[in-house]
Structure formats: C-alpha cells, structure tokens
Amino acid sequence: MVKTMKGAAMELPLNQIIAGDSIEVMRSLPEASVDLIFADPPYNLQLKADLHRPDNSRVDAVDDEWDQFSSFAAYDTFTREWLAAAKRLLKPHGAIWVIGSYHNVFRLGAELQNQGFWILNDVVWRKSNPMPNFRGKRLTNAHETLIWASKEEASKYTFNYEALKALNEGIQMRSDWVLPICTGHERLKDENGDKAHPTQKPESLLHRVLVGTTNPGDVVLDPFFGTGTTGAVAKMLGREFIGIEREASYRAVAEKRLAKVRKYDSTALEVSRAKRAEPRVPFGQLVERGMLRPGEVLVSQNGKTAKVRADGTLISAEASGSIHQVGAALEGAPSCNGWTYWNFHREGQVVPIDVLRQQIRSEMR
Amino acid sequence: MVKTMKGAAMELPLNQIIAGDSIEVMRSLPEASVDLIFADPPYNLQLKADLHRPDNSRVDAVDDEWDQFSSFAAYDTFTREWLAAAKRLLKPHGAIWVIGSYHNVFRLGAELQNQGFWILNDVVWRKSNPMPNFRGKRLTNAHETLIWASKEEASKYTFNYEALKALNEGIQMRSDWVLPICTGHERLKDENGDKAHPTQKPESLLHRVLVGTTNPGDVVLDPFFGTGTTGAVAKMLGREFIGIEREASYRAVAEKRLAKVRKYDSTALEVSRAKRAEPRVPFGQLVERGMLRPGEVLVSQNGKTAKVRADGTLISAEASGSIHQVGAALEGAPSCNGWTYWNFHREGQVVPIDVLRQQIRSEMR
DNA sequence: TCGTCTTGTGAATCAGTAC
DNA sequence: AGTACTGATTCACAAGACG
C-alpha cells in the first residue's frame, strides 16, 4: 500500500519537469493536490518485445490474433494504472482531459467511465490541415478526440462559460474545435533539424482547454509532458504546472522552451465572468434600503401585477411569496427569474428591478 | 451452440422488416451473408431530472424504456452479444458502422476491438444545428461519432474513394462530416403530429455511408431499424436491406415510409451537399493561435486603443467586450465592425486585423 | 406571391447555496 | 444528509402567421 500524504503536508514540485515513469511519479505525489490533468498518453507502446500479459508472462509474437488481444490487455492495464494514479492526485472538484485517436481513445473513454470519472464532453479537434490519406483506402483522418471528465459525478468542475463564449464571438462554444496542427516555427526541432517530438500538440489547443477549464493559479499536471506544450501555455496563462517525462531528450527540449516563455500581463488574463459569480442580493434589501416602498406595485412585461410587502415578499390576486415564486405562479411556469420578470414605475418610465440590484452590486465593489 | 447455415442454403429475408429482438433475430439468420451492417444502438443516456429551456419550455428528452440499462456492465453485456451476432452475419470482407455519443461510443469502440473487428476510421458527424447547452454548464454537444470497421484486419472492405471525393466537390473526403439533424418534412410524425421516433437519423448521413462503403446490390442490415432511414436510403440507392425492429409502432411507420420510396430519388443527395458559405472566424481564434498575444494593444484609425485579453475580448479605459462592442463604445456608435476598425503593429507597420482573418480563411479552403 | 416576424424544437448524462 | 429556495440559461432552422 502506498503511503499517502495530505495535500499541505508535502510541497508540490511546481513548474518543474520531473524525470521518471508517469505512474511511479504520480504515486509519489500528494493526493488531492491538482486542479486539472491534461494527458496525451502514448498509444503505440512500442514495447512489442517487452509486452506482458496481465499474468506477467511474456508475449513473444504479435502477428496472430491471440497476441492482438493480449496487446489490448496490456494497453488496458497501462491505462488503468495511470488513470488510477491520476485520479488520486485530483482534488475533489478536479477534472481531467485526455486526447487520443481511434486507436486508443475508446479504451481511454471506457476506462474513465469504469473508474467513476464523469464525462462532461467529448471534444473533436478538427484539424484544418491534416495529412491526406495518400493511398485512397480510407477517409482522411482529419481529427483527434479529447475527453473532458470530472473526478466524480458530484464534482463541481471549473467551466468558464463566458470566456469560451467570448472566444467564439458571443456564441456558445461547441464540442467541435477547428484548429490547425502544430507546424512552422511553433514546431520544435532537434539539433539535426528534425521534429523533436512526433505528436507535438498546438498551443492553441491547450490555450482553449486552460482558459475554459482552469482559473489563474490552478495547478495543471501533464503526466506525458513531451516537449511541454501544456507547461508553456500554463505559464503564459498564469497557471502552475507539473510535468512528468521519461525521455531525457524531450525534457531537454521542454526546459529550453519553457525558459523562453513569458507570462501575459494580468489584465490580459482577466476573463469574462458569469453572472453567477456576482454576489447574491436579496430582494428584501431593495425594500429595506427604500429603493422600493412597501405597497408599491410591480408589473411584468405582459401586464401582470403584484404588490411589494414590507418583508420583501410580493402579493398578487393569485399568489404570494418571493419575486420568483409569484412570477412562476402567475405564468404557470416551473420557475421564474423574478429579477428579470418584474418592473417598477419611476417618473413615467417602466424600469426593471434588476437595475436596482446592479446599483447595489456596484456599491459593493 | 447455434446451428449455422451456409450463405446460400437459406433464403435471406431481403427488403423486409423483421419483428423481434435484434440478437435473437441475427442469430437465426445465415452466417456470412451480409455485406454491411449499420447499427444505431441505444445510447444509455442516463438522464435524470427534467431540463427546461430559458423560456421555461420543457425539453422532450429521450426517456424511452429501450434506452435504460441498470449499469455499465449490463450495457457491455448487451453490446458484446449484439456485436458478436452481427460479426457472425458479416461476409469475410464485410464491414460495420456503429453510431453513438460519449455516453456509449467508447464502450462500443472498445468492444469492437475486443472482438477482432478492425477499425478503419472514426467519423465525426458535426451537426450544423445541434441543441444548445441551456444551462451554460458544458460545451454544446454538437456532434456524434460513427465507427467504421471491417470484420477482420484482413478484410478487403469496400471503399468508393472516387464517389466520396465527388460528393465532396473533388476533395478527398475527411473524417468529419457536417450535416444537419433530421427536421422538417423528413422528420416522421405520428398520428398526433409528434415525432414518431426520438432519434431519427438524417438520410444524408446514410447516403454518405452507403455511397462510400457499399456497391449496388449489396445486402445492408440494420439491427436497430427504428423508422427505417437505413432501409429507405438503401432502397433509393439500389442496395438490398434487412431491418430488425422490436417496437411495432416504429415498424408501422417504417413500412409506410418504405412503400413510398423510389429507387434513385435524388432528394437525399441534394441535402447531403455541403452548403457553401464564407466560414465565420471568431476573433478569439487569432489569440488562441498566437497571431495576437494577450496584452497586445490594438489601435483604430483615429488613435483609440484597447488591449487584447486571453479570452478574445478587448479592454479599454471605457469599455470591455468583443472587438465590435468596444469599437462601438469608443465611437459612441450603436454598432461597429471590429474587423475593419482595429489594427495591430508588426515590424513598424500598422496592419488591419482582418488580414489575419483572411489568412485563417485561406487555410480552411 | 413574397418578405418578415413569431413560435416551436432537437440523442442532454445541464445548479448552487442556505438552512 | 436532506430539503427548500434562489435565480441563471439558447442556436439553427423550419413552419406558420401576417401583411
């Protein structure tokens, strides 16, 4: 049994690349300490000579059907172990992103569900410039799949709805993202001028993931760090990162890359906020503060009326209660937002009561 | 052990809808007799409370008895059995298509692999008009996933490369297909005027599948026939179909539908054509893609300035919001085209941001 | 007949806080 | 832990009404 430590008991190795095997390193880190995990796991294990069956017997050939099955079993074992280690590291309200192609993503998704992660969306990264299918034997493989899942069904995951909506020019962000693959000067090269990593992900992809599902200061872990795209974007966006990478050559490229990255200034990191994040103002406060008088009549867009009482409730011919309850009752609706439903009269004008709430909120800032 | 018959020994029930349980019926049909299977199995959505739109209308959810499973294990057993029965029916060079959403597709894909099917592509159906996410708690679930797999790795599957290329206006068909959901006159209604089936698939989707992966005269089986989209398109395209459906009401609708279908009806072909329009490019994409940095200052012709934020909004001394909103606020105008209003600095030059949009659009063509 | 406006609806794992 | 209450939240089309 692994001895675990409580979050604060051990210092997290922030903004570093840890050398070693992902599973072992994750097991050594303190549990419930990470806000988000982004993982681009290998799907070609390239371990054919070292492939082991679940019972640890060695697989010596991979060209018959039996071994095809056993290689799936080996991949599933690997997936099960790193996902379990990842889950342990997540805070209760943490979340994970994994990315894969049809070779491995179905096994990833099934195992996420088996372990009790709660899938929030699957996201399609639609590549605007994919490699064509040269032989014309299949469709051009023009996308990869990401899965976004919270630690548990009950997790209150981070989702910056308004920020993603802003990124999409005011329209709700969809589950299909059109982004180019990583090319040009963003693509890191080794000393020979060859690409440093076979599957370097574009920074634009991580930008959208981190803006959408983390807050500044959050801890983001990438257990298959590669050349460090996750770390680079996290650093730019003012998030803390932890990278784990086994290959020294990738670590070297990533270290060099990260040293050059600068954080954006903090006003640029402020993001459009949801109304939910605004402080709650009880309707009764408008009455207490004399913005509305007891006995004053409120009116809805469609002409329904109700009278304000001294305790901040409303009374109409048919119902009494909160602004929401009376609105819902008058409309025969399951619910109603009283703040947007009701209006009052001032100097011949019809004014939404939400204006008064805005006034109180602005005084609070 | 099921006693099996050789292909020719038993007459196939062609161009009929067979009443009964998919698994039992498939087991009763002769092995190695079908060229293609298209399957739209229950998704196991696991919905809980009612969902209302912001206008308080209720979303008509898929809450049918046939979509309820007690656990993932129960769903997996069901999947394993129907896939095994399907595989037995396929000719050696046959193939299968399955469709699902993130609720079930990972389990489908993993079980396909476990049974030795060979995945050829996963295909994303990007819906041009999906239902939005009403609560703003996740991304709009705007796609479904299809998996195309041959019976075995060695199968010489059918792929009509040139036909699909022609459907795509001369460009190699990709693994992401933009098609509208099934609405309007195509959507079948019951005697009350309600939708006859909760999840009717568009004919355009089946048109592309059958044109691309079958030949005229091929036998196409759909074990979850529903209202018979697969049969209708197969008939139009001169393929033979076999439908299996448990629910009498769906069978009745499908029979009526199929009676009206004529071979080579061109309407399905028309709807499957992609609409040509200049693609919308959100300003945020320039930021995600690193063409503009968060914190960078944009400038207007008349010297107004604003700073770019990480979510693709602008912030100036007086206002924050989209490029259009901030432009309008600074000019005191009711509206403003931010694309022509704002410029950025590069190498001593002032460059309109629209240049960057043009660049993205040219990549998309 | 042809625009324009209004209404309806689609495979959906869709809330957070205070008591 | 369970209950009660507040109050936030939608995009693309198609069909029908209206002028």
TrEMBL record, chains A, B:
PANTHER family: RNA METHYLASE-RELATED (PTHR13370), TRNA (GUANINE(10)-N2)-METHYLTRANSFERASE HOMOLOG (PTHR13370:SF3). It is an enzyme of class 2 (transferase). It comes from Psychromarinibacter halotolerans. This is Methyltransferase. It catalyses: a 2'-deoxyadenosine in DNA + S-adenosyl-L-methionine = an N(6)-methyl-2'-deoxyadenosine in DNA + S-adenosyl-L-homocysteine + H(+). Belongs to the N(4)/N(6)-methyltransferase family. The keyword Transferase applies. It comes from the Bacteria.
